[in-house]
Amino acid sequence: MIATARLSQEYTNSYLPAKIHGDFAGKHIVTVDQFARADLQVLFDSAHDLRDRVRIGDPTVRDLCAGKVMATLFYEASTRTDMSFQAAMQRLGGDTIATSGGVQFSSVYKGENLADTIRAVGCYADIIVLRHPEVGSSYEAAYYLDRLGERLGRQPVVVSGGDGIGEHPTQALLDLFTIVDFKGDVNHLHVAMVGDLRNGRTVHSLAKLIAQYEAYHTSLYFVSPPTLSLPESIVNSLRARGFTVYETDNLQEILGICDVIYWTRIQQERFADPAEYAAIADDFIMTPTLLAQAKSDAILMHPLPRRHEMGTPADHDILDADPRSIYFRQMENGMFVRMALVSKVLGE
Ligand code: NCD
């Protein structure tokens, strides 16, 4: 057999995604590095506006993407990312398509590679939301969609819905929007991110995006077991940009001063060795007793899904009733931020 494997990760070096620079139209969205503060402001203003318009039932929202088609191509499990993108597109008046029965019944099952599948989907859709287990898969998709665009004379775009343990840019957009929504800004905040910081792509993107937002006097606390710490490259780039970064495995040290507590799931599916997972699985569990030690105006966020890292189902009920727990608002904001992004990328 001929060896054909090519690593998606190689494309993170060879493919440079276009910066937004005030113009979203026709751009692939694969990393938070594409966004400057001014772009985030434009996006957040639009998300606010769309949220207001959806709430009052403004029928003209449906004109924004009328006639456009979104494909959702998910090689990994998803509820929120998949459905919020679909809901966003439908509320914008566009249509959504996906392989009937999920990606396992697509030609992927026959051994088709990503480069070919993405171009097939690009022939039918204007925008493709891709979730894939390989780091760099969205860069690879962008590269091949550019090649396809040259042939078709129209440019289908890809939006990353998460590339393995790499990035989850649209989650970071909705997370940052939610922080600004509740706290008014990101300046002068103590922000803690807790859990599996090595494998958690939402944390990778959010930490980078806070830096892109040029937040000042913001302290970042990364709390994890030592084996699951944030990749060094991200820590270094934050420090290089002047951020106070504090890494610890002792939550008690900082819990009482945090304004934003971003809790995450241990990404069990990313562990090759079950014993390694078992050794740290119970290290950080948010419970009502723990939340009682947080500031009265702190916000507790979580990208969800959650498992035992938020305690038992009975704990969930108590945590959910606490006004500081804002993860369902965070979730709803995801749809509005994705509406703003999709309409801008499709050239509204
Ligand atoms: C996250 C993800 O898929 O990275 N979920 C999400 O998109 N809201 C977080 C997780 O799976 O733990």
Taken in chain order, the helices and strands follow as: HHEHEHEHEHEHEHEHEHHEHH
Strand order of the largest sheet: 7-6-5-8-9
Largest sheet: 5 strands, parallel
Total helix count? 13
Strand residue content: 5-15%
Unreliable runs: none
Estimate the global geometry from the Cα principal axes.
globular
Overall pLDDT level: 95
Distance between the termini: 48 Å
Helix content: 40-55%
Walk me through the topology.
Elements: H1 11-14, H2 37-55, E1 69-74, H3 80-91, E2 95-97, H4 114-124, E3 127-132, H5 137-152, E4 157-163, H6 169-183, E5 190-194, H7 201-212, E6 219-223, H8 232-240, E7 244-248, H9 252-255, E8 260-263, H10 274-280, H11 288-291, E9 299-301, H12 313-321, H13 327-345
Parallel strand pairs: 1-2, 1-3, 3-4, 5-6, 5-8, 6-7, 8-9
Helix pairs in contact: 2-13, 3-13, 4-5, 6-7, 6-13
Kindly describe this structure:
Helix content is 41%, strand content 13%. It has helices at 11-14, 37-55, 80-91, 114-124, 137-152, 169-183, 201-212, 232-240, 252-255, 274-280, 288-291, 313-321, 327-345, and strands spanning 69-74, 95-97, 127-132, 157-163, 190-194, 219-223, 244-248, 260-263, 299-301. It has a 5-stranded parallel sheet with strand order 7-6-5-8-9. The chain has a 4-stranded parallel sheet with strand order 2-1-3-4, sandwiched between helices. It starts with 10 loop residues before the first helix and ends with a helix. The protein binds N-carbamoyl-L-aspartate. Residues 80-81, 162, 168, 171, 201-202, 265, 303-305 line the site of N-carbamoyl-L-aspartate. N-carbamoyl-L-aspartate binds at residues 80-81, 162, 168, 171, 201-202, 265, 303-305.
